[in-house]
Every structure is written in C-alpha cells, then in structure tokens.
Design goal:
With 450 residues, the protein is an alpha/beta fold. It folds into 2 domains: 100 residues, Periplasmic binding protein-like II (D-Maltodextrin-Binding Protein, domain 2, 3-Layer(aba) Sandwich); 270 residues, no CATH class. Helix content is 66%, strand content 6%. The chain is built from 17 helices and 6 strands. Strand 5 and strand 6 form a beta hairpin. The longest helix is centred in the middle third of the chain and has 38 residues. The chain is elongated, with a radius of gyration of 30 Å. The protein starts with a helix and ends with a helix. About 8% of the residues have low confidence.
C-alpha cells in the first residue's frame, strides 16, 4: 500500500504542477463560455446581413404582401425581366429568384433559382411568407362566400399564448418553482462532462502505460513494486487530477455566477440578453429569430430558485460518485489494453468493445430526456457501462433513492470486477513484447496464479 501511495503521489504531483494543467484548468471555463457566447454573437451578427430575393409573381396575389426579415429581403420584378436576371443573378445583386406561377392556388408549388444552394433560413422565411399570404387569401374568399365580415377578427381573437410554470413538490412537502429546461441542461452538462472525463483521463492512463511499456521503463519499475500497485497508483492519481480540476471549475463557475448576478441583477437589458442566450443554449433555438421577452428584475433569483429545486447536494454527490466509479471501470480496462498490446493498430482492435457502450449512452440521452422514466432510461441507468451517463441525465428530473442505490451498487461491483480482470492482464501483458495477443490468450492470462 505504501508503494501504491508513492506512485500515486508522484503521478499526481507530476500532472498538477505542469503549466499546461494550470493553464487549461483556468481557461476551460472561459473556453466553455466562449463556446456558448461566440456562436450566439456570430449568429446575431450574420442575421444583420440581408439576402436579396427577386420575386416574379405571375398570380398577382403576393404583390406588396411579402414581409422582409433580418436575413431576407424581397424585391418584386417584372415577368419580362425574369430570363435576364435568372441567367446572371449575382451580377444583378440577387441571392435567389422566386418564381410564383399563375396557378399557385391549385398547385401550391413555386420555384426558387439560385447559383448555389440557398440557406435554410431563407427557405424557411419564403415558405412562411407564402403560406401566410395564401391562408389570408383563402380566408378572404371564405368570408366573401359565407358573408361574415368579422370572421377574420374572430379567428384572430381565438389565438392564445400559454405560459407554463412548473412547480416541483419536494419530499418535505414544500412547493418550489422548477424548470424543465434547466433540469435538461444540467443533466446534459453533467453527463457530457463524465463522458468527456472518462475518455480524456482514461486516455491518459492508456498513453502512460503504453509509453512505459514501449520505452522499457516498466521493467525497471516493477523490479521494486508489484504490477497491480503500479497500475492502481497511476489510475488513482489521474482520478485525483480529474477531481481537482472539477472542483476548481465548480469554484470558478460559482464565482462567475455570483459576479454576473451582482453586476447584471440591476440592469433589465443585460438580464434580457443573458436570459435570451441561456434559452438559446438550453432549447437549441436559432438566436436570430429569438423574440425577446420582458425580464423581471429578479430574474437571476428566479433562476437560482429553479436550480436549487433540483436537490443540488444529491446531484453533486452523484456526479462525483459516478465519475469516480465510471472512470475506474473504463480506465482499468484501458490500462489492461495498453499493457497487452504493442502497437496503435492493436489498441484500436481492443478499444472498440470498450467505447461502444459510452457512445451508445450519448445516443440514448435524447430519448432519456424525453421520457426519464421510460424503459430505455431505467435499463440504461442500471447497466454499469452506461449508468454513469444515463443516470446523470435522470437525476435532475427526480430519481428514487433506492433506484440510485441499486445503480451505484451494480456499477461498484462491476468496477471491482473490471479492476481484477485488468490487474490480471496488466501483470502478464506489461512484460510481453513482439506478440499480438488474442482474446483466447487473454482468457488464459486471467487463469494465471500470482
């Protein structure tokens, strides 16, 4: 045990004292913030550039009825000019050319010509404007036949916008404001962090073991320590590096949130912008078509109240537990693979079965968010190879404590089994060179006695 602690101390201090670790730890929150803010800024900036669309209306229904947007501007042209402009759109200053046939009411088809594929924003705006005008035209014809002049106003009066406010009732019986969007965002963020950390730090273990084996340094090291002590010291040290990084990020994010609350809390305009960006991130909507809503002065307090309704202690503890157990499960398998093979090609052969469950869990996340209590969510949160990711998606929506305990217990038992298997393979494979192991040979290694 003392030798394992010595290896742990050396590996941990070697990594946390590197300049790259310190720089990336401090810059990661900034980079994550940039990934959220920069796309929104660029989308808003791009939305200010207009794309000119020429319109040839052979039906005379749409003349003067099409409304411009921030990204699309319509200009009506005469039918006789259609051929001249179509042959050279860009020289005439047009992005695209819209031709509306005379029988549009019966065919419901139009033609858009462009020298390159038009963007989805322009196509969507054209669709919505044409549909709006045609619907108004059909309503007008209906009114003229039925003879109810105020039918249009009556139809408009029936349109209703509903604002859904969610209330979460805790185990203590107290009702608190909740937010499905915030629960979804936190669940996605926690699960993706575990996915990223398992790959990143598991990859560190695999590269470290592979380098020591290729450089023959391991032959010197194991002359004074047991292979299992070397493997566990390395795995636990990198796990501690990951936890250190996570704790620093949590402190930095808490400081950023507190500072933003104090600086923006008294400025409704800044609150409005922050809330709009948060909604874009949570809902995945297009910022260029987002409609600003009035934000109350205590918006940050409301968001904080919604976050606290998610049982943060349970969420944080579960994140740490699932990160440690999931990391130990996968990193031990990666260490065994690195010890068993000599080349990159062999690593890829054995890594595929290990990485498939992680990738499958990421694919399942969208279905789990839609139905956190469905069969896929329940099975995925109890299968040990996917539970660290799937369960973290479900926890913000509420998971019974007994179900969480079963999931953690199954994961812990599987993790200890994986460590035992990895230790057996590591002990034999770390000193073998020049031979490509097979699955059958790996099975024999498990039967070797110490």
């Amino acid at each position: 045990m003392n030798k394992t602690l010595l290896i742990f101390k050396r590996e941990y201090l070697t990594r946390v004292t590197k300049k790259t670790f310190l720089i990336m730890t401090l810059l990661m929150p900034i980079l994550m913030g940039a990934l959220m803010v920069v796309p929104t800024y660029l989308a808003n900036k791009e939305s200010t550039s207009e794309q000119l669309v020429g319109v040839v209306d052979r039906s005379s229904i749409f003349l003067g009825e099409l409304e411009n947007s921030k990204s699309t501007k319509f200009q009506f042209i005469k039918p006789e000019e259609y051929d001249k402009i179509k042959d050279n759109l860009q020289a005439k200053g047009f992005y695209a050319l819209l031709e509306i046939p005379g029988n549009i009411l019966t065919t419901n088809k139009v033609v858009v010509s462009s020298q390159k594929q038009i963007s989805i924003d322009v196509k969507s705006h054209i669709d919505s404007q044409l549909e709006r005008v045609l619907e108004n035209q059909k309503r007008a014809e209906l009114i003229s036949r039925v003879g109810i002049p105020d039918l249009e106003e009556q139809l408009k009066a029936t349109k209703t916008n509903i604002s859904v406010e969610t209330i979460k009732i805790g185990d203590d019986g107290l009702a608190r404001k909740g937010s499905t969007e915030i629960a979804m965002g936190i669940g996605f963020a926690a699960s993706f962090l575990i996915y990223m950390f398992v790959f990143m730090y598991g990859g560190m273990v695999m590269r470290g073991v592979s380098e020591e084996k290729q450089n023959r340094i391991v032959e010197v090291i194991i002359s004074s320590v047991k292979p299992i002590q070397l493997m566990m010291g390395k795995i636990l040290a990198i796990a501690a590096v990951g936890l250190t990084q996570v704790l620093i990020w949590l402190v930095l994010l808490l400081g950023i949130f507190t500072g933003a609350k104090s600086m923006l809390g008294s400025d409704p305009k800044m609150q409005q912008l922050a809330q709009s960006q948060a909604e874009n991130i949570m809902m995945g909507t297009n910022p260029s078509v987002q409609v600003m809503q009035t934000i109350e002065p205590n918006q940050f307090d409301q968001i904080a109240e919604q976050i606290t309704s998610l049982n943060l202690p349970m969420l944080i503890i579960s994140f740490i537990v699932y990160f440690i157990l999931g990391y130990l499960l996968y990193s031990s398998l990666m260490a065994a693979i690195a010890a068993a093979v000599d080349s990159e090609e062999d690593v890829n052969q054995f890594m595929l079965p290990v990485t498939i469950p992680l990738v499958a869990a990421i694919v399942m996340m969208a279905n789990v968010v839609k139905n956190p209590d469905g069969a896929i969510a329940i099975w995925g949160s109890h299968i040990p190879f996917t539970s660290p990711i799937i369960m973290m998606v479900r926890i913000p929506f509420g998971v019974p404590w007994w179900e969480l305990l079963i999931s953690i217990s199954v994961l812990a038992v599987t993790m200890f089994g994986a460590v035992w298997v990895a230790a057996k393979i590591y002990r034999t494979g770390i000193l073998m060179y020049g031979k490509k192991p097979t699955w059958k040979e790996l099975g024999k290694w498990l039967k070797y006695k110490s």
